[in-house]
Amino acid sequence: MPPDSAPDADLADVTERTSAAVFEQCRSLIDTAGQACVAVKPQLACFERLGTHGWWALDEVCRAAQRAGLLVVADGKRGDVPVTARAYGQALVGETETPWGSIRGLGADAFLGKPFSPRRLCELVGAIRPGAAPRPA
Questions:
Q1: Residue 5's closest CA among 103, 101, 99?
Q2: Is the residue at 97 inside a domain?
Q3: Mean pLDDT per 10-residue interval, the chain, length 137 residues
Q4: What number of other Cβ atoms are within 10 A of residue 107's Cβ?
Q5: Is residue 133 in some structural domain?
Q6: Nearest-angstrom CA–CA distance, 84 and 71
Q7: In whole angstroms, how large is the CA radius of gyration of the chain?
Q8: DSSP secondary-structure letter at 43?
Q9: Residues 96, 49: contact at Cβ < 8 Å?
Q10: Phi and psi of 95, rounded to 5°?
Q11: Longest dimension (CA), the chain
């Protein structure tokens, strides 16, 4: 996302600014392609990693899609592919880098998930050093 996204958002908070930019990007896509689509499928992990402001952006994206006459299919699979595994790791135990700075995740010490590959999930979220073996549950 380019640093000049959400130019109307005069927001000092990195999380607010990033969430506003995400919403503006999604709204732009809905406005541009919506007439040729039946539905939108927002990936919840990509919004959740932005914290409460990410939930605001998700809500606004869903409302914009519904106003455009689109169905909304919330994609809430947890850690089934690398992009969601990484996003949930950022949301729960890590941080998300943005053009305006880092957004701190929840700060949990650990989390439970159903990974597509336990070793790969741990590597993606930085839970283990590359080359180290994960500990059995």
A1: 99
A2: yes
A3: 54 87 97 95 92 95 96 82 82 89 85 66 57 52
A4: 9
A5: no
A6: 22
A7: 16
A8: B
A9: yes
A10: -150, 160
A11: 49
Told to judge if 114 belongs to the known catalytic residues of this protein, a careful annotator would answer: no
* Residue found under tokens 């919840």: 44
pLDDT value at residue 16: 93
Fill in the amino acid letter for 24. E
Residue 33 to residue 26: CA distance in whole angstroms: 10
Q: What are the residues whose beta carbons fall under 8 Å from the beta carbon of 119, sequence distance 6 or more?
A: 128, 133, 134
Pick the catalytic residue from 41, 63, 67, 77.
77
- Is 1 domain-assigned? no
Q: Which two tokens stand for residue 16?
A: 């607010």
**pTM of the predicted model over 0.90:** no
Evaluate whether residue 132 is within a structural domain. no
Task: Label residue 78 exposed, middle or buried (CB < 10 Å: 0-12, 13-18, 19+).
Answer: middle
Domain membership of residue 38 as a residue range: 14-125
